[in-house]
């Protein structure tokens, strides 16, 4: 079996003119979703897998978008998806999309508001994980997919996979919930709020309508990403990769970049601020905060998941302190309580929350073994 990239991947766009009523009651009159597909949909249309992205993710999941810059334009989960890889595109038809509210081609705050012709900006309504599931279901309809063989995601993507099994149980046969949680802790909500405040208080934010001022709140977005990135890494990883190493020969006794970890965080912040939309960042973090499927069942996650008919793979990582293994075990325990089919793995990894993006032999072997069980 070959293990290669899916090759050059081209984005596609689907337009939906039927209004979408969101959980908040707001209505998006029409919208577009940008997506990519890999592999071939079989005659029975039974081999489709949906990949749900995390906070800063998008539709470009595998392959490369620019043949002249292959390494720089690889999809964010290229090590997981492709011919002979754990999610094998020789078996499955894989769909990755940019969620509603995103900034990679799908309708979002930077898109024109049909009512004004100007970018939506602050007027773009808040979206929830439930809203994304409904929009993703419309894309499945457009592609002729009645039920996904699996819905797969890490972090916020894993929350979407979980929500699919609750909202549309007949349309998903398996769910892979990786490095996720059934809801955010107060600490996680606090991190998100500090990140949002960095953006909201940036003078260049202009109440979310910075597009009209031909600027962007780069300083706030940079700080938000720096804070977020700290929570994605583990203490062990930062100690091993950076320690207390200095950039120069000695202490400068000032407030510039002196330690290598400072240089790394500022580089990551600057890079992120150069391509991500601040309003989308606000929307995505709020969707994280609002996610709580057990709220509708009086706080009982088991009751919320009782509707699910899918089989589950739940994966956590030992050094992930943002969404710790204990949070994944809450999902597993609720499913076990209901007598539902669930496989669970806790992977020893030094990469913290970012572990779900890494090429780890044990992790990939577990995902591969589970995916090989799925009949198409």
Automatic annotation (TrEMBL):
Transmembrane segments: none annotated. Its main location: cytoplasm. Pfam families: Abhydrolase_1. InterPro entries: AB_hydrolase_1, AB_hydrolase_fold, HAT_MetX-like. Keywords: Acyltransferase, Amino-acid biosynthesis, Cytoplasm, Methionine biosynthesis, Transferase. Pathway: Amino-acid biosynthesis; L-methionine biosynthesis via de novo pathway; O-succinyl-L-homoserine from L-homoserine: step 1/1. Belongs to the AB hydrolase superfamily. MetX family. It is found in: Cytoplasm. The record marks 322 as: Important for acyl-CoA specificity. One of its GO terms (cellular component) is cytoplasm. Transfers a succinyl group from succinyl-CoA to L-homoserine, forming succinyl-L-homoserine. Residues 47-354 form the AB hydrolase-1 domain. The gene is metXS. GO terms for molecular function: homoserine O-acetyltransferase activity; homoserine O-succinyltransferase activity. Its EC number is 2.3.1.46. This is Homoserine O-succinyltransferase. One of its GO terms (biological process) is methionine biosynthetic process. Homodimer.
């Amino acid at each position: 079996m070959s293990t290669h990239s899916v090759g050059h991947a081209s984005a596609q766009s689907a337009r939906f003119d039927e209004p979408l009523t969101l959980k908040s009651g707001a209505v998006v009159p029409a919208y577009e979703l940008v997506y990519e597909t890999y592999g071939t949909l079989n005659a029975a249309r039974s081999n489709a897998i949906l990949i749900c992205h995390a906070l800063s993710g998008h539709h470009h999941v595998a392959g490369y978008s620019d043949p002249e810059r292959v390494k720089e334009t690889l999809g964010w989960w290229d090590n997981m998806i492709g011919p002979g890889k754990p999610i094998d595109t020789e078996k499955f038809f894989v769909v990755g999309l940019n969620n509603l509210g995103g900034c990679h081609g799908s309708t979002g705050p930077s898109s024109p508001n049909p009512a004004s012709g100007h970018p939506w900006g602050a007027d773009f309504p808040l979206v929830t994980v439930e809203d994304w599931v409904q929009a993703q279901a419309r894309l499945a309809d457009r592609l002729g997919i009645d039920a996904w063989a699996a819905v797969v995601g890490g972090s916020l993507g894993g929350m979407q996979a979980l929500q699919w099994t609750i909202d549309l149980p007949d349309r998903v046969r398996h769910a892979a919930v990786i490095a996720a949680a059934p809801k955010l802790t107060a600490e996680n909500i606090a991190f998100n709020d500090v990140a949002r405040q960095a953006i909201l208080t940036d003078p260049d934010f202009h109440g979310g309508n910075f597009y009209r001022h031909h600027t962007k709140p780069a300083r706030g977005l940079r700080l938000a990403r720096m804070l977020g990135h700290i929570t994605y890494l583990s203490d062990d990883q930062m100690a091993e990769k950076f320690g207390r190493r200095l950039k120069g020969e000695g202490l400068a006794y000032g407030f510039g970049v002196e330690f290598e970890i400072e240089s790394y965080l500022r580089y990551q912040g600057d890079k992120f601020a150069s391509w991500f939309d601040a309003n989308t960042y606000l929307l995505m973090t709020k969707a994280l905060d609002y996610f709580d499927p057990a709220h509708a069942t009086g706080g009982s996650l088991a009751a919320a998941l009782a509707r699910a008919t899918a089989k589950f793979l739940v994966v956590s990582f030992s050094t992930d302190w943002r969404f710790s293994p204990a949070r994944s075990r809450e999902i597993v325990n609720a499913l076990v309580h209901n007598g539902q089919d669930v496989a669970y793995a806790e992977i020893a990894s030094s990469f913290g929350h970012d572990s779900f993006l890494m090429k780890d032999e044990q992790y990939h072997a577990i995902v591969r073994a589970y995916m090989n069980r799925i009949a198409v």
